[in-house]
Design goal:
alpha/beta, OB fold (Dihydrolipoamide Acetyltransferase, E2P), Rossmann fold, 5-stranded parallel sheet, 16 strands, elongated
Length: 479
């Protein structure tokens, strides 16, 4: 076996370490990449991860190196999470200040010295603005933008004049939910509320679908809620990314009931806040908003009541003065009319007395003359009527016999006419009487072909059926 020229692995690693130290020792580099395979040793506050660069077109990894952070690097990562609201975890794009190290046992890696929060904030803001632009572009029917203001179907709705029945979307263990309920229940005005809980996870950007499903559940309940409240109590700042999700923003923007948010942030508004009807900073602020809204209604109602009382008082005062003025005017005018017509009334009274006396005197004279006439005229009238009665009696005796004779002559004449026109004599002259259904008929229109008729002659009755009916011209009896 030929002799081979070899070295120990430790010697090779030492040479590599020397070369790296010569070229990279004391130097630091700002490097952009994505975090993968991240682990965090909480007890020591160490971070271990792979720092990679991905192909922007295929998303495949084109560069990869191990990295770690401890000491000042871990403190910088904690500050980064506080400032950005973004948890240092997998699949985030960051700008790191690193030094290059090689260890003969642990190998080649990067040591994190600092992390640029502004770079990540810019990336997050770019993502946020891209989501907002997508919401406006893809949902023109219920999301529009004018200037810096977003107008959605939800924030165009009007709150009901009183908010009492509420759908509350929050975590089952949320301290914010308890704060919200406590603030409503302990309101100093004694307002009562009915709150229905819709529990879900309200933190972690990967739980957006759960939040959307809960919003849909509220809609499918068909309960006529006055408002829907979405709150998040406690948790890290990184949990706000859930509320910048496209599907969450879209569901909030198109929801047909006003949505009030109180997700516990004190800085920029989330996309959910921009899409919602009434964004507030915290769960307590959301409850205070509802109480203030109802208080405004109560104050308006009390103001309306006060205005009614004031207007009523003004109305009564105005018309009381008018009535008093009218009463005074009537009294004064009545006095003036009475005073003005007093002399005329006295004159009329005197004329009435004098005229009455004259009328009574004249009527008394007429009654005296009439009484004298009544005493003499009845005797004359009775005498004349007796004479008339005697004349009538004489006339009755004279004309009675002649009158009876004349009347007998009249009666004999009428008897002759009646006998002449009697049916019996007419039948003897060759005429006939026709009956249809035992009724004498003289109008031929009442006889139809096929009718059965009775023909009555002087001494015979013939029953026959009409076979034909024609118009007769009457020529047989022309003289």
């Amino acid at each position: 076996m030929p002799d081979l020229n070899y070295i120990k692995l430790s010697d090779l690693n030492r040479q590599i370490e020397e070369i790296i130290t010569q070229n990279f020792g004391g130097r630091m580099f700002w490097v952009v990449g994505d975090v993968t395979n991240h682990t965090h040793k909480h007890e020591k506050n160490y971070h271990y991860f792979d720092f990679v660069e991905k192909d922007p077109y295929s998303n495949g990894i084109i560069a990869k190196i191990s990295a770690s952070a401890w000491g000042i690097g871990s403190e910088k990562i904690y500050n980064f999470e506080t400032v950005t609201g973004q948890k240092f975890t997998n699949n985030i794009n960051v700008l790191l200040l690193v030094s290059v190290q090689f260890h003969s046992i642990y190998g080649f890696k990067l040591n994190v010295i600092d992390i640029d929060a502004n770079f990540t904030l810019g990336v997050l803001e770019q993502q946020r603005q891209a989501t907002l632009s997508r919401l406006v572009a893809e949902n023109p029917g219920f999301i529009q933008k004018a200037g810096d203001q977003y107008y959605t179907k939800n924030n165009r709705l009007n709150h009901k004049i009183v908010i009492q029945r509420i759908a509350l979307i929050t975590s089952q263990t949320s301290a914010g939910g308890e704060d919200f309920r406590h603030t409503l229940d302990s309101n100093p005005h004694g307002y009562k509320f009915q709150i229905d809980d819709y529990f879900t996870v309200v933190q972690g950007e990967n739980n957006a679908e759960l939040l959307v499903a809960k919003i849909i559940e509220v809609f499918n309940s068909q309960i006529p809620y006055d408002a829907v409240v979405i709150i998040r109590g406690g948790g890290a700042q990184t949990d706000f990314l859930l509320f910048d999700d496209y599907n969450v923003g879209r569901a909030v923007a198109r929801f047909p009931i006003p949505i009030i948010t109180g997700i516990g942030h004190q800085k920029n508004e989330t996309i959910t806040d921009l899409m919602a009807h009434s964004p507030t900073k915290t769960p307590t602020k959301a409850a205070e908003f509802i109480i203030a809204h109802n208080k405004q209604f109560e104050e308006n109602l009390l103001l309306f009541q006060k205005n009614i009382v004031i207007k009523s008082q003004q109305f009564f005062s105005y018309y009381f003065q008018k009535l008093a003025s009218l009463n005074s005017l009537i009294v004064n005018n009545s006095r003036n009319i009475i005073a003005h017509n007093k002399d005329g009334l006295v004159e009329i009274n005197q004329i009435t007395i004098n005229t009455s006396k004259s009328i009574i005197f004249n009527r008394r004279s007429e009654l005296t003359a009439m009484a004298s006439q009544l005493a003499s005229k009845p005797k004359i009238i009775v005498y004349n009527r007796l004479a008339d009665i005697k004349n009538i009696a004489e006339n009755i005796k004279t004309f009675n016999a002649q009158y009876l004779k004349n009347q007998r002559s009249y009666l004999g004449h009428y008897v002759s006419l009646i006998n002449l026109m009697s049916p019996k004599n007419i039948l003897k002259k060759g005429f006939a009487i026709i009956k249809v259904n035992n009724e004498i008929i003289s109008n031929p229109d009442g006889i139809k072909v096929g009718n059965e008729i009775d023909i009555i002659l002087a001494e015979t009755q013939i029953t026959s059926t009409v076979k034909d009916k024609t118009t007769y011209n009457g020529n047989d009896f022309n003289v």
